Task: structure prediction
Amino acid sequence: MAVNMAKLKVFVGKFVGDLGAAVHSGRVVIGEKLGLYKALAEGPLNSAELAAKTKTDERYVREWLCSQAAGGYVSYDAASGKFYLSEEQAFALADDNSPAFLPGAFQVALGAIQAKDQLEERFKSGKGMGWHEHNANVFVGTERFFRPGYAANLISAWIPSLEEVDAKLRAGARVADVGCGLGASTILMAKHYPNSQFAGFDYHDKSIETAKQRGKDAGVADRIIFEVAMAKTYPGRDYDFVTFFDCLHDMGDPQGASEHVHSSLKSDGTWMIVEPFASDKIEENFHPIGRAFYGASTLLCTPASLSQEVGLALGAQAGEKRLREVVTSGGFTRFRRATQTPFNLVFEARP
Result:
């Protein structure tokens, strides 16, 4: 075997970057949880000042700061010996409501990796691993990662891209948010459309418990019912609007879910499906975003689907063509891509 040393050097360089990223994820979650990023966003600090401000140990903080600066997540001024966040770093690391808030994604990754031993066995057996079997960081991190994107796009762009839906919601409509998780999307819609009534459904009971409390805290509990229910059996009929946020591909029987949505909608109702961005050709997904989504799909999405009946395992990079097949097989006659972002595809389906 003849090894091209130049190519090997490039590949080892990729490995070094990945190794740094792997250990970096834990440091991001620690820094966010301890308030280190938020403190740095207020102004330049040395390690002793940051430790004092956050009531942490200086030696640990010093090493953390250097690791963050080496990775480009924190900036350093050699003249003063102080660390700080640039405007862009602060926007992504210290503002929970920023559409580019990143720590939640690292929290998901760490939670998913904790299932490594169980998933190793699943690789051999072909069995699935349900969402509920994962570490709680998966549930909390997913909501923290997706919520800013929903806040930035759902009301301003996604719903307006659908035919007549915004007007219906303003006038007063019945909405089912299926796979609602901790309720971020449901609560966001309820706050913006006070004349409408909402039901949030998820099969994970712990998530529903949290969603109920968050609905109360947001002051919209009188217009939202959160209930444990499956996508194929959630209660209610004659909904004006049904939403699936980043969850159709996780379902074991997405065709069965499509059939149930079809039966639960009014004849002029609308189903909005938000899915991870993906091209139909797998080679067109071989880029950094596709890598992240395929990684999450390997650890979370595909095992979740395989743990359920049918176990179709669409995966997080199913693509528009495959999703169209699933949706129209459930009885929908109209399906279109309404809008998109670099991370999401937003589809509209109508009976």
Remarks:
- The chain is about 50% helix and 15% strand.
- The longest strand covers residues 265-276.
- The radius of gyration is 22 Å.
- The chain has a mean pLDDT of 96.
